[in-house]
Amino acid sequence: MMIEEVHIWRGTPEQRSLRGQVLKATQFAYFDAQLEHPDWSSKSVLDFGGNRGNILHDPECEIRQQNYYCVDVIHEAIEEGRKSFPEAHWYHYDRYNCSFNPDGIAHLPVPDFGRSFDIILAYSVFTHTTLEEMRDLVTQLATKLAPGGTLAFTFIDPHWQGNLKWRLERLNAEVDWEKFLDCSRNARWCSLVNNKLFFDSNGRWPRERDSCMTYHVFYTEEFIREQFPHATIRPPVNGEMQHCCIVQA
Fold it and tell me: H or E stretch including 13?
């Protein structure tokens, strides 16, 4: 059984104790490749859903702390990031998320930063929100781009190199996931809620906010192209499983 990102923030004491050992810091290399190596040192960057500023933990990261703004729904993550990178800018975004921030405020607008950004990044954010939230948040974020700016966000295609199969196989080996995979072959998008799979749907989840719920959403490349027809879609790089959707101002 794999440990989920949500568990290191909202799981058992044992799971939360692993937080220092679980830090993904490959985001800079990923976006640097997808955006074709911009001059990061001169760019203002908004890391939407940036957790504790994971992208800055890459020793090769060229983003200047003073130009870096991080937003996340996890208050503890923002506080940890602030301690690690005090010259950067940190914002707790108390918006409802069924998994990471169930006590948050539904439909809370993206904060006003008093400025626009050259680059806005969102790594593995819309893999944990509903379809409607993704549409809403992408629209809001696009308004915060400077002229000529770039918004880049990731999504996971369930059919690309067995992404969904990889995820399901690591949840519970005793379940016949092949049966579910057969059902998913024609799905344009799907959600995985507490290990229950829903096709072409956001899924359903319990109302109890004390539960630590896992929530994953998968979109095919074709479906994302339909949602954002003017965007550029690029395949995964660097051994990652996530595609990149790039929207220009």
Answer: helix 13-16
* Structural domain boundaries, residue 187: 160-221
Per DSSP bridges, beta strands 243-248 and 45-48 are: unpaired
Evaluate whether residue 192 is within a structural domain.
yes
Per DSSP (E only), the strands in 23-178 are 45-48, 68-72, 89-92, 117-122, 145-155
pLDDT (tens digit per residue) in 37-47: 999 999 999 99
First to last CA, the chain: 42
Tally of domains within the chain: 1
Q: HSE, CB side, 13 Å, CA atoms: give it for residue 20.
A: 3
Instruction: Report pTM.
Output: 0.94
CA–CA gap between residue 6 and residue 20 (Å, rounded): 14
Contacts of 189 (CB under 8 A, 6+ apart): 131, 158, 200, 217, 218, 219, 220, 223
Residue 58 phi, psi (nearest 5): -70, 120
Query: Which amino acid does the sequence have at 172?
Result: N
Q: 149 pairs with which residues across the strands?
A: none
Averaged pLDDT of the chain? 91
Measured CA to CA, the distance from residue 249 to residue 243 in angstroms comes to: 20
**Looking at the domain assignment, is residue 146 inside a domain?**
no
139 inside domain: no
